[in-house]
Amino acid sequence: MIHSFGLGLRLAWKAFMRFQDHNGPDRAAAVAYYTLISLLPLFLFVISLGVMFAGSFDTAFRNSIFLFRGIVVPLDAATVESLRNFVERAARFQWPAVLLFAWTSRRIFASLFSALGAVFDTPAGHGFAKGNLLAFGMVVVMGIAQLATMLLATLLATAEGLLARFAGPGGAQVFNSLTAAFVTHALPVLVTAAFFFVLYRLAPGRIVRAADAAFGALIATILWELAKAAFAYYLRHLARYAGVYGALEGVIVLALWLELSVSIILYCGEVVALRLGSILTRSVIASYEGVVDGADEGENKAK
Question: pTM to 2 decimals?
């Protein structure tokens, strides 16, 4: 137990030193910058896609806020309402404009993949064409996740209606309480863990085992949820300083949160890279020992 704890601390410290050696804070700031300028096109793409399939802006916006709830943590109610009014006026586009939004917002994932390439010592990454297509594919996945959340909301509403009809109001109320707890607490964590898993599995430009990607996703999810709670607490207790930066306050706070989030992603990427390096080292040593043993056996037979 103590030995395992010591190994965990050693791994965490090595990952932190690698994060510093790879200029992790600077890379996190760069990715946060690209995310900040590309976030609105991504938001417009996801909402426009939801409006096209659901026909309701309110439903699409509500599900998008749920999907992006980890990003909109630092935004207050007034800012979210302003964003809603802007998006409602802007999200009336046809397919060419929606695809343009998707292609523009791919820069978020392209910059993130580039930073993870440095973490995993694969600066070339997936190459220009494949890298951009993979980044565009991640944007499409966000759109699919939006449709999935809307479908889930429809299924839950249908199930609640059936329960109210056959089991009475009491059964429907119990079901509503359970689903509310699941959607509010469990589902966001599962979505976050799935996103991190896909990121570590696909982004590095090298083979990453599912077990290593899952380990990195687990650590990243825990750190990110803790950081989200701490950041929300920090903002609540600094509300008395509101208005110091004027209209730029929301942008500055969002940029700070994005930089912190990307730092967590890159740091946990360092943890996964260290695990891969350890596995690779053990594999090389085992292969070398196998070759040496084979040579020794050959010499013994020759004697």
Answer: 0.81
